[in-house]
Amino acid sequence: MKPPYRDKFLASQDNPNPEAIILGVPLDKTESFRSGTKLAPERIRKASESLETFSPTLRKDLQDIVLCDWGDIKMEESMEISLERIKEELIRAREKAFTVIIGGEHTLTLGAVRALRKSFSPLFVIEFDAHLDLRESYEGENFCHATVAKRILEEVGGSFLIQLGVRSGTREEYEISKKCLLSTPEISIPSQLRDKIRDSAVYISIDVDVLDPSCAPGTSNPDPGGYNFKELLSSLYELKSLNVVGMDVVEVSPPFDGGDITSIAAAKLIRESILLFT
């Protein structure tokens, strides 16, 4: 696959034996408020140049890891075909190394979950998100950013879906959220629950709108009252003991991201996640 971009993520190299892989997914088909997420993978890669490769908190360096950027997955007009492409490419990448997907709208997570369900059972999904995304359909679409958690719920079952940082949804969605293992406005998982899922495979999805718009203005559906970057990062560190088999960072929208604030935040989340889970 020849990557249709010029920049690669920080410290990426060409190597047939990666320890971690970056995949870009420029998916932007169903954004309902403002679009632009298809531009996020390229912009986040560029923004990563502002960071050091070394994490002072983790005392680890990207230069000590074989990180390969495999470029962007080509999206199609059909959402179902695009999700199938995501699934196939993640299966291919996951055979080699821990993989981080850069989105792209949140619907892409469904393709990733479908891929990992082929290899891991049970599979727990942890979502950081301001929105419940548990609608049955939205604006005539069954597969979209507002229904993605409902589709994931159907894939893995309510006992395997954890939603953190949620603060927005319909009355009906809040009723459906009771089926989740955990759905909470809090951003941390109780220690007892972390212990319960410690030995199982876990996929993490970070929608940057879990952050307050003051920290992440460049997103498709900003919602006030969120968390700051340090709080989100601390919650991510708490998951270090889990068996994280893949993750994504989604919903960055560069056209609304003054000063690249959100893109840089996303790049740092990716850097720390690679160092944390590889």
What attributes characterize this protein structure?
alpha/beta, two-stranded antiparallel sheet, disordered N terminus
Fold and architecture overview:
With 278 residues, this protein is of the alpha/beta class. The protein contains 8 helices and 10 strands. The protein has helices spanning 40-47, 79-94, 108-116, 148-156, 171-176, 191-197, 229-237, 261-277, and strands at 20-25, 54-55, 60-61, 67-72, 98-103, 123-128, 161-164, 182-184, 201-207, 243-250. It has an 8-stranded parallel sheet with strand order 4-1-5-10-9-6-7-8, sandwiched between helices. It starts with 19 loop residues before the first strand and ends with a helix.
How do the helices and strands line up, and which of them pair or pack?
Blueprint: E1 20-25, H1 40-47, E2 54-55, E3 60-61, E4 67-72, H2 79-94, E5 98-103, H3 108-116, E6 123-128, H4 148-156, E7 161-164, H5 171-176, E8 182-184, H6 191-197, E9 201-207, H7 229-237, E10 243-250, H8 261-277
Parallel strand pairs: 1-4, 1-5, 5-10, 6-7, 6-9, 7-8, 9-10
Antiparallel strand pairs: 2-3
Helix pairs in contact: 1-8, 2-3, 3-4, 7-8
Characterize this entry briefly.
The protein has 278 residues and is α/β, with parallel strands linked by helices. Helix content is 29%, strand content 18%.
